[in-house]
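Sequence in, structure out. Go.
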Amino acid sequence: MMDIYRLKQCETESTCIFLVENGLDHLDFGLTLEEKAYLDKSREKKLRLIFINRLTFWKVFVFPDTEKKDAALQESFRLDGAEIQQWASKNKISEILLDDRTGNASRLIAVGEGIALRNYQFLKYFADPSKKQNSLVKLGIVSSSEKLISELKIIVQAIYFTRDLVNEPLSTLTAPFFAEEIKALGEKTGFQVEVFDKQKIESLKMGGLLAVNKGSIDPPRFCILSHDPEKAVNEKTLVLVGKGVMYDTGGLSLKPTPNSMDYMKSDMSGAAAVLGVIYALSCLNWPVRVIGLIPATDNRPDGNAYVPGDIIKMHNGLFVEVLNTDAEGRMILADALSYAGKYDPDLVIDLATLTGSAAVAVGTIGTVAMGNASPQIFNTLIDAGDSSYERVVQLPLWEEYGKMMESEIADLKNIGGREAGAITAGKFLERFTSYPWIHLDIAGPAYIQTGDGYRTAGGTGTGVRLLLEFIRRNYLSK
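Output:
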């Protein structure tokens, strides 16, 4: 984690990044006439990032993209930050300072966010990580608000932590190890953690979680994370549910390896995001009561693995005919969603890398959403997605999709037909809810093969910024 700190002004002979508007006075920045001429010529070419080398330090000017506004403009500043980080690494710069001269602090935070998120690296498994380490280790931000800088640091740390978990291989992050990581973070940060072992899960009759776990040599875990502040603004609890399939082979419905099973360590991205959100809420001390539920197991084709044709009795008493063991995420989420009802929640949101269909629909740049929550709640979520640029597309859950999940020999089956795969998966989950609920399928953006802007290759931390912005808007801005 890079050191992000607040300062009162940019030091004279330090590398400073200035956020400016058109028509700036070169004297305000100590530019020579030659430098001012270079700046003007660069602007004529419509360059927005202009770098001036002073040999021992740099002056960098960031102009707004006049063709964009609102959320798209904010995103352009995040992307500017990512580009600045790449420039800093190329030039072996260890510290940069950010200074806003436009009077818009949100732009400053957006650039800082882009720099910090692009600077993330997962170097744990290099013999000599120093050879790969980015040069940039310090980011100073000129601001009068310690709160803004503190919030940025916490959110960046939450995303770093989420990305680390997603990038960790199964060899070091089984379900039991994941539960230990959650407990350790809870003790460090202050949120409460309860972990159910296999015996407890059996007593709760969580048949979906137990069925998926049958092929594994590692026992399952069911983790409950509680952020329960004094004087919470919500009378009823917000519950977040994260899919925690630590690795997904597909079970006996075995996945192909290339561009499929080879990155299935990321199938617990939803669980990691829920943990990242709870961590951030605890550090920020936001007065919102939130419960996180994480069912965790891997899905393997051992000799005792559940098989296509099995019928599983779920936590809520429904019987599910299994037609594909690779549709395992919905099996463990169903038990968690059923369990969530005990909290009489205000709203339940689940996050899951659930279907390839969602990725086909919106690619790696969007999240598919569906559910039975009110239009107002969905609008708030979509607005939060636009603001954070973790954008959300709502799909329908029409009654006809439920017919595609009907079984001849059980209450329902665990897959529908070829069409509308993301929706029928959501329709399956709906049968296990009894409260306002939203399903977020993050299969596309949760893990990417190539870096994109401030999203680094591998785990992206998708869902953390989205849900924090949703919580801010839905609970703290009323």
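Check: The two ends are 33 Å apart (CA to CA). The chain has two domains: 3-144, 155-476.
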